[in-house]
């Protein structure tokens, strides 16, 4: 996969750049952190649907498909996917009337390009919170008249909270786009929370997908692994082991939060191994981990630095004020919030609470 930096070089070289919002490389001390924006006003809260895991995979998404997937923007590849994802995608296609190959491509698209900011934080009482912004649609159809990314505008109406139930009880919860069967954001109540951020790397997801097409299928799709973890792991340590040691198709960051003090970690993966981990250590003053799309031991790309302002705003909020309000304020501060941001989610594992909001960053706003 092409490195994101190469995309930026192409943009500057050919002038393909939002005309109304030039990127400003502001000093950290000039960073503006939002305060008092939670609970949000005039921000749509994401609706919820139930996915019954006791129903056959081919029929699980019928109800959702009739409601949502008519808005989703074909093929032999689907039959190579592992169960139950293969059957779910075929079922989605039948229920929605969308060709199965288009549903497959829709799922692959998320596998290889999600731009995000994820945070796991612990307050003074040892309570863990997990939050994220999901940014999507970079370089796909900037509209100079409306100052928006076309794909991001299409995706916002598709955001939905899913409650996966088994035996009538909630097994796990996710935030997703209707028609997508993997997991980018999820919570297993009482046990752990999980988000996935793409890791930009030359040995990227496209290579893994090509290998899969040509018959090398011993790796997991990274977002299918996320869902497998939510379905089968029963502790923070079990979830960590699966995320750290399973071969995946695409380089990725798995951000994992548990239910006890100090259980927060960013697992940095290439396709075959766990490279490095960034762990919380509250005893030493490290009460949060924040991950965007660049390795934590390296500087972020200069014109895509959400890490520095995000870290600045987290420290400005302070550990004593960490909760849904504090995290929402941080995730509402530019450029952490930007024109690509489709939703913000807030999770608390002990209570099992997951709440998400559809986001629109009004002009003036960073394009990404």
UniProtKB/TrEMBL annotation:
Q: Where is the active site?
A: 116
Position of the signal peptide: 1-22
Q: In which pathway does it act?
A: Lipid metabolism
Q: Which GO terms describe its cellular component?
A: extracellular region; lysosome
Source species, domain of life: Eukaryota
Give the EC number(s) under which this enzyme is classified. 3.5.1.23
Q: Which GO terms describe its molecular function?
A: fatty acid amide hydrolase activity; N-acylsphingosine amidohydrolase activity
Q: Where in the cell is it found?
A: Lysosome; Secreted
Keyword list, A-Z: Disulfide bond, Glycoprotein, Hydrolase, Lipid metabolism, Lysosome, Secreted, Signal
- Give a GO biological-process term: fatty acid metabolic process
InterPro entries assigned to the protein according to its UniProt record, in alphabetical order: Acid_ceramidase-like (IPR016699), CBAH/NAAA_C (IPR029132)
Q: Name one Pfam family in it.
A: CBAH
Q: Which family does it belong to?
A: Belongs to the acid ceramidase family.
Name the record gives this protein: Acid ceramidase
Source organism of the structure:
Exaiptasia diaphana
């Amino acid at each position: 996969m092409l490195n994101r930096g190469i995309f930026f070089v192409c943009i500057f070289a050919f002038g393909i750049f939002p005309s109304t919002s030039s990127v400003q490389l502001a000093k950290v001390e000039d960073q503006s952190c939002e305060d008092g924006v939670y609970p949000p006003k005039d921000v749509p809260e994401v609706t919820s649907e139930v996915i019954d895991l006791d129903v056959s995979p081919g029929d699980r998404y019928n109800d959702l498909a009739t409601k949502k997937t008519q808005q989703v923007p074909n093929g032999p590849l689907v039959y190579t996917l592992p169960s139950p994802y293969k059957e779910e995608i075929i079922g989605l296609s039948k229920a929605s009337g969308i060709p199965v190959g288009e549903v497959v491509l829709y799922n692959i698209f998320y596998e290889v390009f999600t731009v995000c900011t994820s945070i796991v934080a612990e307050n003074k009482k040892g309570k863990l919170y997990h939050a994220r912004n999901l940014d999507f649609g970079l370089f796909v159809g900037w509209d100079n008249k409306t100052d928006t990314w076309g794909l991001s505008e299409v995706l916002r109406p598709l955001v939905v909270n899913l409650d996966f139930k088994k035996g009538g009880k909630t097994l796990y919860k996710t935030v997703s786009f209707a028609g997508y069967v993997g997991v980018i954001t999820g919570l297993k109540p009482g046990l752990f929370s999980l988000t996935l951020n793409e890791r930009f790397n030359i040995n990227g997801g496209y290579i893994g997908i090509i290998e899969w097409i040509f018959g090398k299928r011993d790796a997991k799709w990274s977002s299918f692994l996320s869902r497998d973890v939510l379905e089968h792991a029963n502790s923070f340590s079990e979830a960590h082991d699966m995320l750290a040691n399973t071969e995946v198709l695409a380089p990725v960051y798995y951000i994992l939060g548990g239910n006890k003090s100090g259980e927060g970690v960013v697992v940095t993966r290439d396709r075959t191994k766990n490279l490095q981990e960034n762990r919380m250590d509250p005893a030493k003053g490290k009460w949060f981990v924040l991950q965007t799309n660049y390795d934590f031991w390296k500087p972020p790309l200069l014109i895509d630095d959400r890490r520095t302002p995000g870290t600045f705003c987290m420290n400005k909020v302070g550990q004593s004020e960490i909760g849904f309000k504090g995290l929402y304020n941080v995730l509402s501060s530019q450029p952490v919030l930007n024109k690509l941001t489709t939703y913000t989610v807030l999770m608390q594992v002990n209570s099992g609470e997951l709440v998400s909001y559809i986001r629109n960053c009004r002009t003036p706003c960073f394009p990404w």
